[in-house]
Amino acid sequence: MSMNAQTYSSFEVILNAVRREISSNADSPILIGIDGGGGSGKSTLAKKLAEGLGDATLIHLDDFADWTDDSNWQLSTFAERALKPLLAGITSKHQRYDWPTDTLGEWFEIPAIGVAIIEGVNSLRVDLREHWKISIWVDCPRELRLERGVERDGEHMRSKWVDEWIPGEDQYFETDRPRESADYLFDGSVPDESG
Fold it and tell me: Is residue 49 helix, strand or coil?
């Protein structure tokens, strides 16, 4: 269900849509995909949704990063390592990718029951989007995303954002058209809306 509209949905509208999915699909996992550019407010929206639902698993695609080369936008190990077990109803255990050290860090589990909210750049890529009961695109101006990213990661990471990550995102946005495939559009530039 793609809305292809320019109208933003409020947090309450999205939360109620998820609740409707839960009540009509009580016997199967409900997978929610949240995409948008780096620094757009995806994680904030995902966390607020999880809190609003009270019982949801929050999955960050960044935990499944694979930086073995620079073409990282399609190399996330999430689909193979986590999505397949989730769809098969199997709880899976993973090591979280630790960004500051570029190593694998702590272990965590993904239960194959209830609601799973999957957030991250490229969560609405073509090969993943068919699995989501609800898909959300978080809009935010490029300048604000860069400002947030540098504030979060440090000024020393500005060139990584400008020279690698944003151009990589732009390529993904052009190729997979994730915004156009989303069920809901959310304005991540408004602090009160995204939490």
Answer: helix
Structure tokens at 119: 């957030």
State both tokens at 67.
């930086």
Tokens linked to 40: 């757009």
pLDDT, tens digit, 9 for 90 and up, residues 114-168: 899 999 998 999 989 999 999 999 999 999 999 999 999 899 999 989 998 899 8
pLDDT of 1 above 80: no
Helices (H) and strands (E) in the chain, counts: 10, 7
Cβ atoms 94, 108 nearer than 8 A: yes
Residues 148 and 58: their CA atoms lie apart, in Å, by 21
The span from the CA of 101 to the CA of 175, in Å, is 31
Q: CA nearest 59: which of 43, 37, 72?
A: 43
Strand ranges, E, within the chain: 30-36, 56-60, 92-98, 103-110, 115-119, 134-139, 184-187
Residue found under tokens 């602090």:
191
Tell me the two tokens of residue 182: 């989303």
Distance of alpha carbon 83 from alpha carbon 102, whole angstroms: 23
Domains of the chain: 11-189 (3.40.50.300)
